[in-house]
Amino acid sequence: MMTTTEVKTFKMIAEMQIDQISGGAIYFLAEGDRIVWSLASDNFRIKALEVGQKLNTQSCTLKAINEKKTLTMKIPRSVYGTRIIATSMPVVDETGVVSGAVTIVYPRLHPVAAAFDEFAPILSEMFPEGVLLYVTDLHKIINRQGSKEFDIPNVTVGYELKESDIASKTIKSKSISVEEVDANRYGVPVLILNHPMFDEDNADVVVGTFGMVIPKGVAFQLREMSNNVDDSLGGVSAAIEELASSAAQIHSNERELNTALKEVNKFTDEINTVLTFIREIAEKTNMLGLNAAIEAARAGDSGRGFSVVANEIRKLSSQIKSSVPKIKSLTENIKNKVDDTGKISEITLQASEEQSAATEEITASIEEISSLTEELNKISQKL
């Protein structure tokens, strides 16, 4: 217990050390169920513990007065809006009667939050591209640690959490949250990881979060490159497929053309056979015309008309005979041209077959490159 004289000393010491307490503190003196004196650090204040406020019947202070002994209690967030640890010591007057109590209140921090100032500076230097570490309670950021390589100045202690913030989502879901943010928000693309911090006495109650903001410049560039390559390969692949389809059609057309040229060659051979037959007929007709002319001459005047007919037959036979070499020459020229075209067709056919095989190889290579870009994308996501 503490005497009224010792209370005066306590107040003097409190005023000297209040601003040196990490995390803040509140000292107050209660007489009965009212606070008559209070001292709070700048970074930690609770309106319900200011001078003139009436104490809750279940408060640590009133329990210490009633039980006449020093008590320490963990006060849940539901009482004052924040978790605290309160230690109350009864005060006795000159007659030994308990007249009130002196209470010291500290914010109750999660072990991670309490040790943040110790481990955060070390941890922040372990990331080659830098990192921003921070701790929140249920409403705001309560501590932060940037690194030399990376920091976000506008993420400050006291920043009020918005519903869209990842910390708010973590608090609501009670589970780890991961979010990728593009360069529009912080100037560079980042990966944010947020881990819930649970009440030490109740593993189902979230009391805050621990977060990490990691720049994703290199990984983002890799992912953009892999996406661009993948898109480009998709377009190339489509073009190759269209080319392969065209090559297949060309190959089919060339095969049909080659077959048709062979048929033309066959027809020219048949024409030459017919021309030989026509020449033979012409020769026989000419002979018959000659014989007819001789017989007409023997017949004298009575055979003169027949002689005219015989001469005409011989002329026609001569004309037919003289046309046969010309036709044969034309068919030979056609055959030669067809042979030349056939050779070109054979070369084109072979080229189209090689082109078709090449497009299949290119398609296979593109599929392999696409597979590699998928792996690159997966690696960039892990960075």
Automatic annotation (TrEMBL):
Taxonomy of the source species: Bacteria, Bacillati, Bacillota, Clostridia, Eubacteriales
Cellular component aspect of the GO annotation: membrane
Domain spans labelled Methyl-accepting transducer: 221-383
TM region positions: none
Source organism (scientific name): Clostridium aciditolerans
Keyword set, alphabetical order: Transducer
SUPFAM superfamilies, sorted: Methyl-accepting chemotaxis protein (MCP) signaling domain
Keyword NAD attributed: no
Name of the protein in its database record: Methyl-accepting chemotaxis protein
PANTHER family linked: LYSOZYME-LIKE PROTEIN-RELATED, METHYL-ACCEPTING CHEMOTAXIS PROTEIN MCPB
SMART domains in the cross-refs: MA
Signal peptide (UniProt feature, chain positions): none
An annotated GO BP: signal transduction
Stored PROSITE patterns: CHEMOTAXIS_TRANSDUC_2
InterPro entries linked: MCPsignal_dom
Keyword Nucleotide-binding included in the entry's annotation: no
Any matching Pfam family: MCPsignal
